């Protein structure tokens, strides 16, 4: 069945577009590893795409604005003061307690990564040694309506919940006498969350540019806590999602602006799945967000992710047996 013609952005929006490509800013085609350059979700005066960000924010509907107001209250909630007495534990004990605190606060998954300089945006500084990555799942019935208003509001609600969890974990660490800084999306500073979450064992990068988690699929949002408390980093979790994406066409076929392709790209020295920024953002801006690719992703149907993980494991075992 032929794909429909690609979606065309409005002339009103395109009048706001800068001359520079967002793909160029993101480093598509660059073979050297470097830090990311701010492109969106930074202060609008600081990026070439800032006028587009203002245009996007000026078109939000009341339901989405209400969700943003709730999220802002969570962002503005104060952290507890840093305790003057510092608790001392072994890294293994700290890691176990941090994860328990995260799940008690509402995280659906949690992992730990050692900070890497190339995750930090140019112009930002992250002195902390560790990042605690937190995942909170969407309500599937709301997300599957994408790109409708209900899905846009649900994404913002879960960004808010992720920030709340991060602040709870950071607050708990501060009560133990250890400095901790919460960080939540979609606001970009100071670092990229996706590569940190992959390093922390939360899943593999999918063709749609989101992480696929073995339990949650790609039906979740991220936040992080940055800290110097001694922790044990988790290992990446490779379970076959990348190979699955190489054969699957669901998100690419569903993408209205055709921003998702079936080939990986070199981006700042890494070969990976990459969603075309210049095609994706216009549709995102005119629909208060998107998530069409997540609604189409087979991993996100309730009960499917763990079944797919098992099928991929069985397939890999058969291949190893045949090769022996």
Please outline the major beta sheet: 4 strands, antiparallel
- SSE ordering: HHHHHEEHHEHEEEHHEEHHH
First-last Cα distance? 40 Å
Number of domains: 1
Distinct helical segment count: 13
**Which segments are poorly predicted (pLDDT under 50) over 5 or more consecutive residues?**
none
**What is the spatial order of strands in the main beta sheet?**
1-2-6-3
Q: How much is the radius of gyration in Å?
A: 20 Å
The total strand number stands at 8
Q: Give average pLDDT, whole number.
A: 95
Shape: globular
How much strand? 5-15%
The assigned structural class equals: alpha+beta
The amount of helix comes to: 40-55%
What can you see in these coordinates?
- It is built from 13 helices and eight strands.
- The protein has one domain.
- The longest helix is centred in the middle third of the chain and has 27 residues.
- Helix content is 40%, strand content 11%.
- Helix 4 runs parallel beside helix 7 and helix 5 crosses helix 7.
- The protein is globular and about 60 Å long.
- The strands form three sheets. Strands 1-2-6-3 form a four-stranded antiparallel sheet. Strands 4-5 form a two-stranded antiparallel ribbon.
- The termini are far apart.
- The chain has 324 residues and is α+β, with helices and mostly antiparallel strands.
- A hairpin with a 2-residue loop joins strand 7 and strand 8.
């Amino acid at each position: 069945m032929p794909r429909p013609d690609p979606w065309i952005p409005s002339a009103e929006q395109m009048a706001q577009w800068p001359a520079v490509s967002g793909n160029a800013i993101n480093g598509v085609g660059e073979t050297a590893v470097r830090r990311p350059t701010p492109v969106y979700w930074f202060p609008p005066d600081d990026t070439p795409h800032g006028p587009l960000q203002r245009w996007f924010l000026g078109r939000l509907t009341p339901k989405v604005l209400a969700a943003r107001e709730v999220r802002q209250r969570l962002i503005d909630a104060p952290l507890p003061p840093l305790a003057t007495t510092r608790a001392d534990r072994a890294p293994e004990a700290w890691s176990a307690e941090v994860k328990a605190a995260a799940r008690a606060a509402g995280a659906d998954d949690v992992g730990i990564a050692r900070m890497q300089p190339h995750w930090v945006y140019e112009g930002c500084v992250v002195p902390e040694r560790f990042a605690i990555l937190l995942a909170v799942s969407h309500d599937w019935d709301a997300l599957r309506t994408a790109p409708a208003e209900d899905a846009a509001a649900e994404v913002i609600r879960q960004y808010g919940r992720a920030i709340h969890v991060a602040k709870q974990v950071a607050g708990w660490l501060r009560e133990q006498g250890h400095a901790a800084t919460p960080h939540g999306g979609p606001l970009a500073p100071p670092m990229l969350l996706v590569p940190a979450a992959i390093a922390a064992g939360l899943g593999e990068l999918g063709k749609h540019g989101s992480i696929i988690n073995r339990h949650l699929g790609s039906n979740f949002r991220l936040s992080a806590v940055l800290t110097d408390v001694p922790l044990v980093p988790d290992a990446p979790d490779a379970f076959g999602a990348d190979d699955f994406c190489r054969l699957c066409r669901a998100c690419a076929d569903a993408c209205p602006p055709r921003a998702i392709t079936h080939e990986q790209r070199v981006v700042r020295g890494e070969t990976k799945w990459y969603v075309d920024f210049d095609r994706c953002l216009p549709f995102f801006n005119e629909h208060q967000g998107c998530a069409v690719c997540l609604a189409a992703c087979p991993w996100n149907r309730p009960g499917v992710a763990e079944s797919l993980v098992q099928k991929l494991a069985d397939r890999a075992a058969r291949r190893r047996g045949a090769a022996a």
